[in-house]
Amino acid sequence: MQNAATYRARAREQMGGNIFANNWLMALVICLLCSLVLSAASVVLFVGSFLIEGICLYGMAHAFLSVVRGKRDTYEVRDLTVGFDSLGDLLILSLIKNIFLFLWMLVPVVGFIKYYAYAMTYYVKYDHPEYDWRTAITESRRMMNGHKWQLFCLELSFIGWMIVGALCLGVGTLWVMPYMRVAEANFYEDLKKLEEPEVEIPHVEETAA
Using CA atoms in the order 88, 93, 193, 195, what is the torsion angle rounded to 10 degrees? Predict the structure, then answer.
């Protein structure tokens, strides 16, 4: 795993290098749309955001991992719709994951740990759409075993950006959201690579001519 500075550098490069680059702005639009949809859902229904969180974050995983993995160079708003292909599964996953977190948060320290244990749930679901809610959550917990502190430090490393953004009438913090999400996608990608078996190169003995 890399350090926080490396993940931030990779994220900046993938978003175009500056906050007014087309890719950064497109990533911002994706994050804003998700925030607006979740806010609207919570107004309509008390647990509305709990239910549709998975659809939004699943779509964001698709958008950001596509660039992280080099499948394309730009983010696309239409990526947010891919979650509708697994609508039922994502609704159940969202609801159960958030119920679990709510209950764990009743014990603050444990809740903090579980928050990071479940952090990769939607990335796991994206890579394995056949997983049910239990398997997706369990796999996230397994992947994050020994790496929760690293993700916490990565998120904490954005504090300077958040302070500067807050000084700009709070508007600047909006640009930090996609920055953090893309850095998180890179973090997940490195976690996956830790799972990949090393390819052993066969040794060929030289023979005398």
Answer: -110
